[in-house]
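As the work plan foresaw, our protein records have gained a structure token line. A representative record is set out beneath this paragraph:
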Amino acid sequence: MKPDLLLIEPMMASIEARLDEAFQVHRLYQAQDKAGFVAAIAPVIRAVVTGGGSGISRETVDLLPQLGIIAINGIGTDAVDLDHARSRGIRVTTTPDVLTDDVADMAIGLMITSLRQIATGDRFVRAGKWLGGKLPLARRVSGKRLGIIGLGRIGRAVARRAEAFGMSIAYTDLRAFDDVPYRFEPTPQALAAASDVLLIAAAGGPQSRGLVNEAVLNALGPDGTLVNIARGSVVDEPALVAALAEGRLGGAGLDVFADEPRVPEVLWRMDNVVLQPHRASATVETRFAMGELVLANLAAYFAGREPPTAVV
């Protein structure tokens, strides 16, 4: 008999087809009454597949007495209580490495789009405004000072790309690293003060909530640009909106937000802000590779082997 699996959010059709081959899949995202749906199947669920942003609440985990593995289709673990999973003996896996390049590419894309005002130029031409004049000058990307908050896999991948633009690179993290040539700054505020572009690549969760606050944004200043491809929770979003509206921050490229998919409407109307709907890893190639790793983790667990990318 196939093990019962709770699928929190949709995946690529080809990946879901393979899940159906190996599991009795219960699709929460299709249910109208989600609480009732979970309650009806709770006693038999042995695996959960979810996204990094969606996760699964502690309360839902406690409804599933047979749950043995939570396979996250992503690298974020802030929406899963890892300590609680550990106490229950539940394995938790993620999909590291396979999405690093796409997320780093998006970071560079947001940086270029923000500084060179590419999206603004696109809107300008489409609205027929070029007939009446020209846009103000944009800002150069090459040679800028890039500050990276969080020098993990993605932060390092962005740094390597930024080197090709002749950017000077500095970073802050929980500690300095001996294996990189980049300058370490002890705090986000000190890093922001020494940067033209501040990139957030830090993990989400309570430890980083509101890390980029008003003081950091003020230090980045009216000529600075903030790029966030990490988690919306890392930024004090009301402080960010105020800094942009008041001209204390020059611009922003944002792929993530505090309360997705609800984005502050004031940001919609700001020409100095580039917005994306949390899709840094959303390419066909990467989503397929992520799905393959989810399948590999599930297969290993149910075969009694160590899941290849377990975090718990």
About this structure: The two ends are 27 Å apart (CA to CA). The chain has two domains: 4-96+284-302, 100-275. Residues 4-96+284-302 form a domain with the Rossmann fold fold (CATH 3.40.50.720). The CA atoms of residues 12 and 288 lie 7 Å apart.
